Amino acid sequence: MEPLHARYPFLARSREAVEAAAVDLGEIVATDETVTARALERVESAITDGTVGEPHRRTRVELLSYPVARVLVSLVDVHICTRKYAQAEAEAAYDRFTEEFETTTELKSTQRETLDRTELLAEFDLASAVSDAGDGYRVEVGAYLDLAADQRGDSWRLVNRPLADGEVRVTAEELNVLLKQAIRHRVTDGLPFTVPDAIADELTEEVDRLEEVLSELELTREIDTVVPELFPPCMKSLLDQVQKGEHLEHHSRFAIATFLVGIGMTTDEIVDLFQVNPGFGEEATRYQVDHIRGDTSPTEYSTPACSTMQSYGDCVNMDDLCEAISHPMGYYEQKLDDTDEEELVDWREDEGDEEADA
Amino acid sequence: MEERTRAYLRGRFGDHYRQASVTPPPAANEREWGFIPWTEGPGETMVRHRSLLDLGEIEDFLGRRKPRHVYFSAGRYDEPSASTMSDKGWRSSDLVFDLDADHLPSVVLGEDSYAEMLAKCKDALLRLLDFLEEDFGFDDLTVVFSGGRGYHVHVRDERIRHLERDARREIVDYVRGIGLEFDELVDEESVAGTAGRSSPAQKRTLSTEGGWSARAHRHMLAVVDDLLAMEEADALDRLQEYDGIGEGKATAALNAARSNYEQLEAGNIDVHPAFYQLAKILLHEVVAADNAPIDEPVTTDTNRLIRLPGSLHGGSGLEVQRIDREDIDAFDPLVDPVPETFRGHDITVEVTDGGLVELDGDSFTLEAGNQTVPEHVGVFLMARGRAEKGKE
């Protein structure tokens, strides 16, 4: 078991190293608490902050925690957990290999073994699908679509790419992002699997812990998501006017404010958002929002229904989904449900968090 | 449709199938098969989830059951006859494109004749093939006349058969030009100060290598060539037909194009702000002109059933016909797919919905009532529900 295996536990050679060491997973989970604890940390951090936590200083513990983490994910058997876990493993590997790609050429003779691009491409059967194009790479379109179809952003769309003779041009950085996706697919592959009872019985505490973490996550997620692209057309339009600094009638101001409160924004966030509009004095806005929230009034106001929006003339740009719902909040909930959770970029996280997406 | 009409068509389809040779698609035994029999009533019920094992040898099956419509799946499965998709065990799918005259924006329904619709559909087919061959580099294409109002293209390239729905949607968007962003097509690079006083700090270029940017580039150059070949005054008039281009911008863009032609050829569109604005407008034109308006759900559905080439279309009596790549230009959808079986003799039909029928190089204007017509015309009318079999 080498340090490289522990850094990239999803590689075929890492799995072989585990197999060659003839480790019995059943025995590990029964006797080696360090490994189980590190495995739990991998999954728990994945759920709570999208990382796999700090690597354990012992190679053996770090490497063995990977198969045990997969067992935990399988036992929990919840889609969102599997997805977040695979994403976090892929992010961790991405951080490591991008750093190693950069240093390989200069520091080839250093003590530690590193992973290079050729090897990683070969690992995912991409050796023949990717060729060097001098100032970047060419990727066969089938391989490109496998790895780029669920990337966020217009620049990944095939339609915006020079595609010629079945090959797509990408930069070296973009190829790294595609490799990250290949890792994510690799980690997801085969999850969840069936876990023998003997192993499951040893991990009940860890599984309970993860279920608890997940249930907390769902409670907060339910309503606390601010993705303006998914707002109903009426709210999009009002928000747009607010941000352009246009004057809004009282009923319109009320509608957008109740909506933003309803989806979990704090008074401070709403005040910040409204500040560009000269029509919203900070104090007045703060008062109004607190009032709506029920902090300074006995009533908690809720967002007007579609019928009310219509009668005030605030219902604009109706789309197909509008026909099917009767409340702006229903529209938004539906849109959130229909969208892959990873695709959701919360407005409040978007700022200053660009590098995560690079 | 009256019973006697149904019985007649079923019998004649059977006669046809007993002589015809039908080549099944590759891996026929890994696919789901479906068919619609000649049953009573207005509703058509598809018999599906059949494997070739259930149907037997395909030509024998066609001659025996004489179905009205026959389909096979784009998908290949472990258990093609399992009754649910999850039990079937999906392995891969052909990538299938459907061009249907009903969905073409250029077709005016109720105004264009059947022949005109099919001609527009063939233009779209040629545009689609250009994408598939040049951009995607596919060389294993099967082009099929659907027997109705359009064409199907089957791609069985191993490198794309495993693609799932989302990836297939990207391909749909590509050939339809959906989501094309001008800013994404244009490469921006900083230009060093030595490039000349008038040169902007950013140089914006269209890649001429491939994709929509190369298409946009070709289109832009073609327009520029036209303009430069015109009298100056005509060229300026022509330019001012574009939105937001007045006399000043037209003059500036034209001059910039004339004095920087080599730059334009190389893909640089930053020769002048007015020209840049023009280039942006031209991009939108190229999407409208070049896109292939395929029917999205057919391509994204990895379990789709597709008409079997070589079978007869029960709604027209025409053959669902494979067309060799080099024969596409000459292919006449109103002549070539007329089955030999229905040629060379007349039958009597009771026309209920008269009008023009163009078929097999001839045209007939039919009035309601008993008419004696070539059999393929009679079959066409009966299959479309515009006539009943004449009483013997």
Automatic annotation (TrEMBL), chain A:
Its cofactor is [4Fe-4S] cluster. One of its GO terms (biological process) is DNA replication initiation. Keywords: 4Fe-4S, DNA replication, Iron, Iron-sulfur, Metal-binding, Nucleotidyltransferase, Primosome, Transferase. Residues 225-334 form the DNA primase large subunit C-terminal domain. Heterodimer of a small subunit (PriS) and a large subunit (PriL). Regulatory subunit of DNA primase, an RNA polymerase that catalyzes the synthesis of short RNA molecules used as primers for DNA polymerase during DNA replication. Stabilizes and modulates the activity of the small subunit, increasing the rate of DNA synthesis, and conferring RNA synthesis capability. The DNA polymerase activity may enable DNA primase to also catalyze primer extension after primer synthesis. May also play a role in DNA repair. This is DNA primase large subunit PriL. It comes from Haloarcula argentinensis.
TrEMBL record, chain B:
It is an enzyme of class 2 (transferase). Keywords: DNA replication, DNA-directed RNA polymerase, Magnesium, Manganese, Metal-binding, Nucleotidyltransferase, Primosome, Transcription, Transferase. GO terms for molecular function: DNA-directed RNA polymerase activity; metal ion binding. SUPFAM superfamilies: Prim-pol domain. Pfam families: DNA_primase_S (PF01896). This is DNA primase small subunit PriS. GO terms for biological process: DNA replication, synthesis of primer. RNA polymerase that catalyzes the synthesis of short RNA molecules used as primers for DNA polymerase during DNA replication. Catalytic subunit of DNA primase, an RNA polymerase that catalyzes the synthesis of short RNA molecules used as primers for DNA polymerase during DNA replication. The small subunit contains the primase catalytic core and has DNA synthesis activity on its own. Binding to the large subunit stabilizes and modulates the activity, increasing the rate of DNA synthesis while decreasing the length of the DNA fragments, and conferring RNA synthesis capability. The DNA polymerase activity may enable DNA primase to also catalyze primer extension after primer synthesis. May also play a role in DNA repair. The lineage of its organism: Archaea, Methanobacteriati, Methanobacteriota, Stenosarchaea group, Halobacteria.
